[in-house]
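re the bet — no i am not wrong, look at it urself. input seq straight from the record:
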Amino acid sequence: ANMLSGLSSAYAEGHPVIALATTRRSLTTHPERPGAWQATDLVEMARPVTKFSALISRPERVPELVRAAFRAALTGRPGPAFLAIPDEMLNVKIDSAKAPVFPAEKYRMTHMGAGDPAWIAQAADLLAKAERPYLHAGKGVLWADAAEEFLALGDYLKAGMGCSLGARGVIPENHERYFFLFDMQATALARNEADVILVVGSRLGEFDGWGMPPAWGDPARQKTIQIDSDPLSIGVNRPVDVGIVADAKAALRALLEAVKARRSARESMPDLERYRELSQQTMMQGMQFLTAEPEYGLNPGHVVVTARNFFPPEAVTVLDGGNTTLWGVAFNQIFQPRSFLYSVKMGYLGTGLPFAIGAKLADPQRPVYCITGDGAFGFNALELETALREQVPIVVLVVVDEGWGMERTAYAFQGYPPEAHHGIDISGEVRYDLLAQSLGCYGEKVDTPEQLEPALRRAVESGKPALLHITVDKALNAKPPGYELFRYVRTL
């Protein structure tokens, strides 16, 4: 039961996870005996948030059902699979001769290929003739390890390129033809003016404007090519002219080869300067948030920018929280694939510290830093002990506004005065740096902008899991970049 929210996140965001849990013995649970302790149907509980959920009823079926779980998790759009094991089976020995184990290629599709050559040819014809192509990457590009191929095609065509929130890093965000998801002027205009768009590994969800006007051009006049490993994702939110069910890496390679056979490399992107001027206007508007003077503590945007400038481009950024995340998305650029973690679909709080630990364990050579709100951090704060025990030297920046910042924003939208803001304050007596120290980690309190960079340096040099308690102006934190857009969410 404790893993259900994690499974729902993996299911919503397309993460392949194999989850195992023990159930009470079958004698107690099939059917469930009234009043039995911790007896419940875990398989049915997990079924709505997994691609496969099953009970291993006999020891001999372990290999078969493990294969089924991996097949479901890794075929098409990735996702979680769940297996329940009755406790009476935990110590049962299995005759290996009766339970053979097969390599992956023997029981599931491991190479989808580039798709139907006819589809590739149709897509290549459209892209080769396009005057204003635009390429959009989803998280499927990351799962296919296809960022290099995506960039190569975009650069050959001199196409505008953007990505979904979860795919940040596929395109270096300092690339001249990168269009930021929330640049409401330049990005929307470039997508509208494109004559051909290529969508790879994305269903074009809500943050992508559902793939429809006004965020994109009218499908009646704008040709759409979609590449996805899941046939059920083709055309799900936007009608397509060419749908290619394939491995993104293989399909992009084949597509670039086919385009090269049809035309030479394009020299420039039409109207790039006009788009960049609009982006510059958006950046200047954003500067008003960064330059706002705090009455006390730090400007949250200063925290984000300082952290981004301190850590190298290859560092992994983890975001967690409400308004804290809005600051992080706006001012923390991502430069490499697999460098950005956030609960994109579900927006779960408390994921930051566990994500950061996992990222550092997966790639120990890369620096990992987590920017989290104080409210969100409270959900899993004691995982600092896990980080210490596993010797995971991450840096956690806790942005302390002593409350639930996004709820403060919501109250303000409704016109409630501060004295009517109920249930949103967190005690100002909490010292997260001292909590970290009590667990054996490095902890330090930061109250002024000048203290932040030296504190980051000391945190890294400690060689331990490190936490910085950073005091920010709660009034500024309640007005992050883009916050006014949330005024309209409830009307959509």
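see?? The longest helix spans residues 272-290. told u. also The two ends are 33 Å apart (CA to CA). so pay up
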